[in-house]
What we know:
- The structure is a single chain.
- The chain is mostly beta strands and about 180 residues long.
- It has helices at about 30-35, 165; strands spanning about 10, 15-20, 20-25, 45-50, 55-60, 65-75, 75-80, 95-100, 105-110, 110-120, 120-130, 140.
- A five-stranded antiparallel sheet has the order 1-9-6-11-4, with no helix packed on it. A five-stranded antiparallel sheet has the order 8-7-10-5-12, with no helix packed on it.
- Strand 2 and strand 3 form a beta hairpin.
- The protein starts with 8 loop residues before the first strand and ends in a 12-residue tail after the last helix.
Amino acid sequence: MPCRIPDVVLIEPRLFGDQRGFFMETYQQKIFAEHGITAQFVQDNHSGSRRGTLRGLHYQIQQAQGKLVRAVAGEIFDVAVDLRRSSPTFGQWVGEILSAENKRQLWIPPGFAHGFYVLSDWAEVVYKATDFYAPQWDRTLLWNDPQVGIDWPLMDGADLLISDKDRAGLTLAQAETYP
């Protein structure tokens, strides 16, 4: 189902369960294409993070990556920010709770910055990417830029765990963006 930014899509896979557990397809090219997602994936990534970790907001200014994101352990608040100047939703964000329990996935097309905040004691995030990691094109949008105004569900009393790189991200006004 499309999110508030229609190009970002929340996906709820069908589960098949019995006394042994469950089975689900996390990606099937034909079904995704029927819903307008025709991206070809070239890389899978997996991260593990403690409660209070904020990763992002990351993007590649060249070799822009589309991402299909899901939490395979724990719970995160996953965010996408539209960095496409030609888009009517430029500078707007969307956020969704992804968890091992709800099994939801978020499709974030190329042209968006991406990040997440860990809500559970531990979370593992897996995502497919449409282009290879290219450190020379890696950029970071400031996670708390007031112009973007992301309403992060920061937990009272929990330390914010964030890398120096992410803490030093650029504001939307300073950041390189897409046409």
